[in-house]
Amino acid sequence: MNNNLRVVLTAVFVCLFLTGCQAMMYGTAEKLNKISVGMSKQQVIQELGNPDTTSASGSEEILKYKWMKTVVSWGPKYFYVRLADGKVQSYGEEEELTSKR
Asked: What residues does each domain of the chain span?
């Protein structure tokens, strides 16, 4: 086998291995599939665990989680669960939340 090809294959393997390790460390956003509009904050925390950060304004609260989008992703991203009056109103990738405001 050509040395250049061997180096490239090794680099690809290392990259895939490291992204898999990050997914194990952070988890993946597929957890959001357990959430639905109308759930209580307690139900969300029961399904997703404690959020990495929270913020609130008036009757709105945002729970933010840091996960990998998929097992093979470049790095973790923030995902949100937006609650109004204690119930889930929306959830998804953080970029979606900021574009809706």
From this structure: 3-100
CA distances from 81 to 13, 19, 70 (A): 34, 25, 18
> In the sheet where 87-93 sits, what is the strand order?
53-57, 60-67, 77-84, 87-93
**C-alpha to C-alpha distance for 40 and 86, rounded to whole angstroms:** 6
Strands (E), the chain: 53-57, 60-67, 77-84, 87-93
CA atoms of 81 and 96, how far apart (whole Å): 11
**Rounded Cα gap, residues 69 and 5, in angstroms:** 30
Q: What is the CATH number of domain 3-100?
A: 3.30.1450.10
Residue 87, pLDDT above cutoff 70: yes
pTM of the full predicted structure?
Answer: 0.68
Residues 73, 62 contacting (CB under 8 angstroms) = no
pLDDT tier for residue 77 given thresholds of 50, 70 and 90:
confident
